[in-house]
């Protein structure tokens, strides 16, 4: 569900000129928003493994390992973001690829109850 809404969410952000200061601010705001969204998605892993004080339907070890995969993906995203030219198109492409990879990974973990051995594809 979250993965289906991600492209629509990115399309709501307006375009800017590449060399415009507003474009750089938009790029930084997009980074913050994507990281916040991914953080919210990854919290769902813990909620699936812990329901109040009882065990949830997702194994806690799987949830913890998947959460670590998400943290690693965030570090790769930050590294790629720093190396990126701060243009609107470049930021949108990176955010879309990162959000799609992480969102799809989290959806697969929640649906199957297992995590893939490869982890999350790098942006």
TrEMBL record:
What is the recorded name of this protein?
Answer: Lysozyme inhibitor LprI N-terminal domain-containing protein
Q: Which organism is it from?
A: Devosia epidermidihirudinis
């Amino acid at each position: 569900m979250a993965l289906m809404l991600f492209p629509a969410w990115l399309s709501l952000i307006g375009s800017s000129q590449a060399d415009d200061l507003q474009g750089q601010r938009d790029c930084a705001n997009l980074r913050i928003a994507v990281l916040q969204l991914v953080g919210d998605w990854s919290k769902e892993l813990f909620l699936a493994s812990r329901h109040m004080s009882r065990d949830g339907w997702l194994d806690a070890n799987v949830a913890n390992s998947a959460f670590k995969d998400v943290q690693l993906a965030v570090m790769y995203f930050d590294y790629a973001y720093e190396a990126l030219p701060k243009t609107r198109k470049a930021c949108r492409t990176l955010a879309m690829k990162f959000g799609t990879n992480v969102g799809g990974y989290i959806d697969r973990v929640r649906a199957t109850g297992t995590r893939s051995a490869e982890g999350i594809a790098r942006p």
